[in-house]
Amino acid sequence: MIVNCLAFVGNRFVLLQKPRRGWWVLPGGKVEATEVWPEAAARELTEETGLTASGLELVGLHRLWREAREDAPRDQVIVQFHAAQTEGQLLTQSKEGRLATFGLDEWQDLPMNPADKIMVEHAVLRVVRRQTGIYIGKFRFAAEDKLLDWQVSLH
Q1: Contact (CB, 8 A) for 16 and 96
Q2: Which of 29, 38, 125, 126 is deepest in the core (most CB within 10 A)?
């Protein structure tokens, strides 16, 4: 179970560049055994960015399935939140990677996992368009991280 959090600083949102592949992601990580999803999302955001989140709102539930591979889970659930408000000073670097903010039209060409790009796009659109509901998606990958097919819809 993975959570991530879409957080804005002004009119720009925060992404984290992971050093292993150089891919950009929303701040987030694994849910600990004693946490519920919003607690994990808030904790991960603080640990990775230095920001404190409030007003967390569920914006997406996504299931990722991949063909068997030794170094990656076969089946994952990603739970996305949006922080209505953030406080604190955004770090430029954390133990998880480099941080930066992006405008709505500045991030699409960044190196990203293809499913992450789709999930981020839907989360951002939901917030910007002030949509209600939750995006629910499913993504199927080949073992080498090639996205085979996907479906996302607003519920």
Answers
A1: yes
A2: 126
